[in-house]
Records
---
Amino acid sequence: MPHPSTPPTAGRVGDVRRQNLALVLAGIHRNGGVTRAGLAADSGLTKASVSSLVADLLESGLVCEDSVARDGERGRPGTGLVLNPARGALAAEINVDHLAVGVLDFAGQLSFHESLERRNRGSRPGELLPLLVDMAERAAAAAAASGIELLGGELTVPGLVDAERNVVLSAPNLGWAGVDLSGELPKLLPGAPFGVSLSNEANSAALAELWHGHGAVFPDFLYVSGEVGVGGGLVVGRRLFAGPQGHAGEIGHMVVHPEGPPCACGGRGCLETFAGQDAIYSAAGIEQDPPRMGRLLNRLSDGDEGAVSAVEQAGRYLGIAVASTARVANVSAVVLGGHFAALQEWIAPALCQSLEHYAPGLVPGGNVVFSGLGQTGALIGAAATSVRRILGSPYELIP
Amino acid sequence: MPHPSTPPTAGRVGDVRRQNLALVLAGIHRNGGVTRAGLAADSGLTKASVSSLVADLLESGLVCEDSVARDGERGRPGTGLVLNPARGALAAEINVDHLAVGVLDFAGQLSFHESLERRNRGSRPGELLPLLVDMAERAAAAAAASGIELLGGELTVPGLVDAERNVVLSAPNLGWAGVDLSGELPKLLPGAPFGVSLSNEANSAALAELWHGHGAVFPDFLYVSGEVGVGGGLVVGRRLFAGPQGHAGEIGHMVVHPEGPPCACGGRGCLETFAGQDAIYSAAGIEQDPPRMGRLLNRLSDGDEGAVSAVEQAGRYLGIAVASTARVANVSAVVLGGHFAALQEWIAPALCQSLEHYAPGLVPGGNVVFSGLGQTGALIGAAATSVRRILGSPYELIP
């Protein structure tokens, strides 16, 4: 419920104004081009309060006036307000087989993107971070050249993180455990007013789907990230369900066969041991040398039986884990990304059949969809999270 | 954030007072014996506002003054306020092998409890409900004889429910699908001002653990209900995580073996097919005639190998499902109820070993605990939910 706006003074009143600044900014984010009158009507604040809040937001540089008047009362037309497309956030990604950086502007465009293929399994943080800092510098320079000021950023990694302390707790496919990045993160975007945070790659990709993908249709879904590891993110009621420590959605380590092979997590029979990239390559008899995905896709196109049955097996076990997750979390839609999206043609029938076999009617075929965001899902989600963090605390930029 | 209290008038101001009535009542619920001065300090409302709100609550009969003065400022001592122990809620339960009713008073005591052993598999609703109405009448009479006025109630069933429409969507172990109880529920407690709601038995038992059991230690846990079926409830951040349609926590239908037997849900290899009561009796070679639990416990005490291995198998598969749930929902504690609690001595070692085998370190042994609420867990949870619903809307009783 909005509180009456009052000028900023000490203590509680300042809090109220902070809250109202975020409220008005959220209104502009939700409804780009809205007028001050529209914001007043939506928020319940007076027009005078809205005008004063908007003046502060314009001064902060977070919003700007749109030249086109979108609505207008009798008399003079209102001026539309939009998030300033000349502001943005940086995203950086460490994954098992690549590093990447990207810039998302406040208009929601991924205006810069660079990816570096690299085998990162067993790489030391001290070896990877300098590479990533170089890439981030190029991204920031490209943003500056386009007139975009970067206010904050997020690094996303394929493992469990403690986002409060900026520690990677466990990323078995990198070979990382208890890696403290609190000293490294600021180097990715020096001096950024909102700093650089840390997140899990599958959660970031799930949020990208929510805000820029299938979230337009499904308010609740499981996102499954197919990389070397298999990760996941649960979206419930248009929010990420992160669980008590922020580690929910780890579908890759659900047990899908009690007598399955040992897993990097220390357990056995995990989904990842059947549906992770290495598991599929190995089942298809494809050796270590890259590009293994290209060779797998070629064999599938040729109808190679070993390749087809390797992918079908992955789809069958994926169906078991999705069915079990649907039972526990009560979601009835699944979005598949990473290599699952690349393998859609061959994996979808096996997955849908498995779902119907193990949990009839629970996840209808029309609710099994594939990500259209490609390799950039996690980057977009990480940057979009940073943008939302900035928009949630506009008062940081207001003197 | 509390709003300044104002006398009730039309529209918005009335809403503010409603909110403040609930706020003050929640303060009394949380802290029985609190004084008006203590409530004012906790809530940020003025003492005058609190006094006026408390006057309304006293008139509603929801709270009463405690004769003992618990604190006191200089000058006259304050009078303590408590929830009125002469108000309460009714709970009713339909389960596969019993019907039950109970009365929970506002002091949190289960002051009446009646259970009827009965094979309800395949029973028609029209056959069961009249029996339950008779039992509810006896419960209400017993409550009245003890001076307890019942203000509302809840019926809890072993299946998925639509709580908005009061429909049992699916209870495969009863053989029910799409059973509309909206006409039947009011008969359980005619004229009750807060009516009678409908809930899932495992969710009710999970809430009973949260409020009256292991929730004192664990803010986040999976509750597993062992009855003929295996159900579950997820508590995250001291709240039930119900999922988009209220069906989350259905651990009984997670797939724990891809080649497992067919299940009543239409799937196969579900936990229930290995760890439900019938599955254990059947694996132990115990026939249909009751009391099968007594015979199983006797054989276990005698060290009968078939019985021991049947229970260990159930524990092993239970461990797989708990491990997978811990991955997806990020909970690291599990509370086991129903027959799992009765079998604690024999099932706990197999369960803990399985957890450690499939997900090392995820759910430490000290976080595997057994319910102490016995058969009454679901009843207590259903009645306590009704009590909380009543306390959330005190204005319904204030003219």
---
Amino acid sequence: MLSNHLQNGVETAKLIWSRLPNSEVEADEAASGEFSRIKKDDGSTVESLDYEVIENYAYRQEQAKRGKVYMTYSVVVKWLMALLIGIGTALVAVFINISVENFAGWKYSWTFNLIQKSYFTGFLVYTLINLALVLSSVYIVTQFSPEAAGSGIPEIKGYLNGIDTHGILLFRTLVGKIFGSIGSVGGGLALGKEGPLVHIGACIASMLGQGGSTKYHLRTRWLQIFTSERDRRDLVTCGCAAGVAAAFRAPVGGVLFALEEVTSWWRSQLMWRVFFTSAIVGVVVQTAMAWCKSGKCGHFGSGGFIIWDISGGQEDYSFQELLPMAFIGVIGGLLGALFNQLTFHIAYWRRNYLHKRGNRVKVIEVCIVSLITSLISFGLPLFRKCTPCPVADANSGIECPRRPGMYGNYVNFYCGDKEYNDLATIFFNTQDDAIRNLFSAKTIHEFSAQSLLTFLVMFYSLAVVTFGTAVPAGQFVPGIMIGSTYGRLVGMFVVNFYQKLNIEEGTYALLGAASFLGGSMRMTVSLCVIMVEISNNLKFLPLIMLVLLISKAVGDAFNEGLYEEQARLRAIPLLESKPKYQMRNMTAKEASGNQRIVYFPRVVKVVDVLSILRSNNHNGFPVIDHTRSGETLVIGLILRSHLLVLLQSKVDFQHSPLPFNSTDGPVPIRHNLTEFVKPVSSKGITIDDIHLTPDDLEMYIDLAPFLNSSPYVVPEDMSLTKVYTLFRQLGLRHLLVVPRASRVIGMISRRDLLIEDNEDTLAIELQSTSVRDHQDGRRALRRKDAEQPLLDGLIV
Amino acid sequence: MLSNHLQNGVETAKLIWSRLPNSEVEADEAASGEFSRIKKDDGSTVESLDYEVIENYAYRQEQAKRGKVYMTYSVVVKWLMALLIGIGTALVAVFINISVENFAGWKYSWTFNLIQKSYFTGFLVYTLINLALVLSSVYIVTQFSPEAAGSGIPEIKGYLNGIDTHGILLFRTLVGKIFGSIGSVGGGLALGKEGPLVHIGACIASMLGQGGSTKYHLRTRWLQIFTSERDRRDLVTCGCAAGVAAAFRAPVGGVLFALEEVTSWWRSQLMWRVFFTSAIVGVVVQTAMAWCKSGKCGHFGSGGFIIWDISGGQEDYSFQELLPMAFIGVIGGLLGALFNQLTFHIAYWRRNYLHKRGNRVKVIEVCIVSLITSLISFGLPLFRKCTPCPVADANSGIECPRRPGMYGNYVNFYCGDKEYNDLATIFFNTQDDAIRNLFSAKTIHEFSAQSLLTFLVMFYSLAVVTFGTAVPAGQFVPGIMIGSTYGRLVGMFVVNFYQKLNIEEGTYALLGAASFLGGSMRMTVSLCVIMVEISNNLKFLPLIMLVLLISKAVGDAFNEGLYEEQARLRAIPLLESKPKYQMRNMTAKEASGNQRIVYFPRVVKVVDVLSILRSNNHNGFPVIDHTRSGETLVIGLILRSHLLVLLQSKVDFQHSPLPFNSTDGPVPIRHNLTEFVKPVSSKGITIDDIHLTPDDLEMYIDLAPFLNSSPYVVPEDMSLTKVYTLFRQLGLRHLLVVPRASRVIGMISRRDLLIEDNEDTLAIELQSTSVRDHQDGRRALRRKDAEQPLLDGLIV
């Protein structure tokens, strides 16, 4: 069917593609994703991810020689990377926590001391410290790393879905995120450091994978195994899990978060490595905490770093409590959905009007938010009159009142000797301590309903306004704050209503926190596990599940999850796992539109390549060749990025328009694989980087060694639902739409794909009775087919 | 390109495929799996799963009218099913536990009373009770439900991978599994009831999905939404999760087990429903336990039902302990791999020699195992001399000695007043209580090293021998027994070696259990979560992770996991997620072999259909049609099972050899979708069920309405690695291998698949600035393409 000439081209391409050292690489080619550059409204661009790796023959030939040793080596390096990501992320998390706790601790101590003398001086110092910290954060972000603003989770989700937002995984983003987080969280804004930690984990992973920052990376040979996009994506997934594990000290939660929320293509092999990274994070954080316990870390150590233990709380629950718990779920769903909607609109307005006016506006905006936050958190507790301390029980270990910013309840704030201010206990305190106080058991009636309601309204508004400003900001901790406030409020009513039950308000606060996060982020299993891990109590697992189910269901009735909404806003075009409804009535041909297909011949003149690349912005081009009988055949697909590399390097230019013939000997080695790999988060080569002499333009390139010789194809009238499933499941970047086939060469069913490993001789021997018999039977049947002259009329 | 005539055929098929009420159904068609019948060595067959559902026009037309209401309804039914599966599985689990605990409780009480008088009478009664229980179990299994033997997890894994082992999800298997488990576990064999519970959950789910048992199922209209294999598979996944959740009272562990171990195609939408099922199980079991606490359930209630709480144990761990813990991991890996290897060989021998001799041999075999087990568990403790009870601490609440079969340590066994027998504490006890004793804290030096070692060797041997006998048998609890024994042994040495540390032997027992399960089953995250949930202690999470990592790595160096080995032994051909190494050098054409393709024309004579079906055992046939110019075109794929339905029902036979023309009006409604659906675990229609008159044979069938008009295709020279990825990821059953395309009609990239929901008007409006601009730009570019005469030479 294929003429010799043509066959030669296909064979050459296949030759090279088949020389890959291990099966991962070609599967990788399948599991790829792409999106062409989209001009966003703020002038920045979202870039395509060139997942498809050219299997450079030179590099692969070299690797193929190494064989088993290389494969072992590559596995070792991958695990080593997982180890390093775990250690790195854990250390950064500890560093951020130490810094934040110390800044906040100093701030509250100092302010508190000043309050004793002058209320106004205290307020002034408090406000100025907050402002200074927040200013440092916004300065770093606006001047140095604009991509560090926000939580970064939508962008990471996009990266793992196949969209490389420019600058998202750079070294400067990492630095901006670390120091920006310290400033914004230390400065008392209504945001958390947990979302940024996920981004930080991803950055660390990405940089480790390419041996340093994009600009100055070490081109170490031993990192060349991470030249495939799939391996890099795996590393980033590990980084995300490490981030969550470090942020919440929740290793299992981290694995599940990576699985449920961020990845698009999950492989069970990866789970194992992600799990390892999380375990490492757990061990390193544990060790650091133990080291800090001796007081070497300042204010950090005694409290701090999540785990709001409620193991001392409620022992059991009764059926009567399920109703108020369901009610908490409904509130969570409603408030969460409202939060998503409000933040969406405000962020939209910010992106399109406010932030277009430049960095100065961004800085001023953050400063105003900081001032308002300081004013409210300092001012409002003033209006609350102090509450007398509960009658001290010698065994309970409750100390009342305490200084703000320290670990514990009953914060003194301009109160008398045996009094505390309940609003200050949650408002004039670090968020970690506030949550711990809200979750605390054995402290019934610590808070008045009025204080909780005031706090809920104020903090909710602050959280909505703060979201989307130009500082690194996570939504987990604010969400937990909001949720636990109304949870505790409901708990108070339950305590009053069911007088006799052994109910702890802290339990309801925990459920409230779960419900708000469920209503806003719409995660299920991972959130549930994170809540269990941070509360260190497994007893409430079914209750948390129940509340999450309700709040997610209620939230889903209104809008999408927070990350999806934000991804949409940022024009990160995520491919969902499920095809859209209207795709049912479309075909592949309709979806591909009526664009004229731009082909390349196998051997193409350089000047033609250049003009074609200039004339359109396609990212992939089919390559055709002619058989001797004059028929055309599609021999593969070539990527724009690879063409640009070929044009830039020039080494593959040839004078003759004749294709390379594989009978002439092995394909000459001219390229290094790394040349074809675009560094993460950078723009790669553009057509403007190409400088060619007139002589160059008259030369030819044989594309056969560089093309993907068998891209996936779909018939023109296939339903778009099926096309979508294929595209999404395999993570493709290009699909060729071809005419219906005129004949079928073979059928592949499961039995054709059951190939036994040759190494497992014992197993094959054992299996022979079952499998070989069957195969023999099958062969016999085939022979029988061949002997059926009766059916000749039907057999083509 | 397509002539009118041909177009008509394709259009008719497309017409019907496009009338599906919601997108799930067609995606389902994509996510399908198949395996043709394999004759196994024991004469039984593994059957194909006809995942591909014919989209019967009659049914679909009807549903399409219902529209939104139907979709809401189908969602409600799905959730209702999840609820019912949860409740059903939980109740069965409670029933099994109550029965086992009571049988075992009576047995031990009675025996213990008899021992006081005569040792021999006690032994006789003990042995006979055990034998009677085990006999009942093996009788049920051999006579009534042979598929209930073993754990059933490999078969369920196979089902979810696309292989329907005959009889695995029938009502009789469910009944056999429930009562067989009670007999075999109550009879004191070295096996557990947790694996069978997974199978039970799957059976319940499958039966609920088809409205009762296969034989007598209610053909209720409201269950017709479960006619698609994907929906059924989802239900079975829910059932597996419910089984684990109920078996271990570990809801999150259940979800993760379903995710990590049993499913092959996971969708994030499903996670949510599985999670719900698990939560329901948790609530129902909790309620039942609370009800039993008042003593209504006999011996069940006080202890029983897993959760071996070690929350009162070790508070912290030091670095010095990591070495012995790693050592436990290594032992676990070695012993686990050895266990897999031994059971594999023994089971192979059993299948091929012993069990072929009939049911009587199976019964005798189980009886002998039961006798040996009784003898060892009763006899060995006799050789141990009694140990004096530890000095009682009034506050510790430790009672010594106790009667066997009760909740607690220090079992009295023919001992004096203040003495206990340490070997009897673990051997002459229910497994649940034995594990609780091994895990127990504050009981240092309860067991002597000699006893533990004896128990380890004996129990390990018993577990190996018992595995594979004809009774329902799980490997979780025996694994935990074995692991915790050597774990506690290591713990004892650590206690002796590091005198000063606050070390609990129970902690090491827990780690030992984790390590053995990790070394044998090779699960990671799910096992880790299950261990945490059953020990009700989150503190050891990083340690369990570490131990699991080591034991799995060590085990992987030797062989595959237990379930994979067993699946291989049972000739369940699982398609792994990763392609095999040797596929790299093969093409699609080579894999499909040189078989002659058997085509059907669009309109085919009944006699020809019959002879083709008789002449081969293919399960799918390409259908071709001719254009007016005489060219042939492949218009789709028809399944053998659907052809058989057509032949059996006869309603679609026609006298004319002319195809149905869609311009004549709507396609006539003759079929009900359920007719095309094969009941689970049954053989479906075979060719012998077809009875046709000579008149029938001369008639024709127009296949167009029944064929899958666009099956997935691959070019003939595509690397088999890529083909495998496509086949496995989409869960296909047939792939057509076609020649290389001669031209490309269009290219589909991510942007072509980003279709916005029309309902979301606000979002579209907001997005317009980013997306519409971009699309306009793209259109402009296309126009530009069209205006490039310079490139005409290259544009075909």
---
Amino acid sequence: MEKEVRDSIIKLVENSRDAIVSSIDEAGYPNAKAMFRVKNEGLETFWFSTNTSSIRVSHWTKNSKASIYFLDSEGFHGLMLTGEMEICSDAETKLAFWKPGDEKYYSKGPTDPDYSILKFTAVKGNYYHGLRKYLFKIDEVKE
Amino acid sequence: MEKEVRDSIIKLVENSRDAIVSSIDEAGYPNAKAMFRVKNEGLETFWFSTNTSSIRVSHWTKNSKASIYFLDSEGFHGLMLTGEMEICSDAETKLAFWKPGDEKYYSKGPTDPDYSILKFTAVKGNYYHGLRKYLFKIDEVKE
């Protein structure tokens, strides 16, 4: 992939507060929801925080297939990454991602059993800008 | 459903230029993409226009399961509707939805074989506002 395209993909991700994160529900329908982008490593790994009891966690427990989508609707840029979602409920990971203010969502603090970290690992991507489209495998955009 | 909640859902849809429209790809992954909201009838039926040759049309041809998602990220509102996507390629439907400027995407005009209309029929919905959540069947929000 050309450096210029890769740079504009990275910029889109870094400028996005939210990602649209998708799962497959128990009836086989795609489900989408905006989630805060907590942390990422390049285009390969992304972390989100969520309630362990949420509907979406139950989806990924049964079917790890997922996608995340970043959109700049004014600039007509969009990036979709497809891959696998893992639910991390170990104390170490949860503490590492804990931020002041998270107690608004997880009242019992970083050990709250209803607090989990989601780890998304991308396999391939689809980026468009205007009418141009770029399909790629994650290996092609690694640093 | 309370009138106040229904009204705020309708307002979210009417204020959204785009919807995030999702399909299931051939490998079983959820795929998402922003599309212009062309027309809707209440919360039950939504139309979009697309290239017949697009990857997403091939997904829905094989698996009609779909969702559409409207987001007001600043106001922390989101609406997801799940249902079925139908591809309309008949001349009458295509002409009815044709708008000046569409030739940018479909160079041969309203009869362009690469121009199709997507018709989404919702079955159920999931609306959240802040930390409140409302799950509903479409029958409950019909006018």
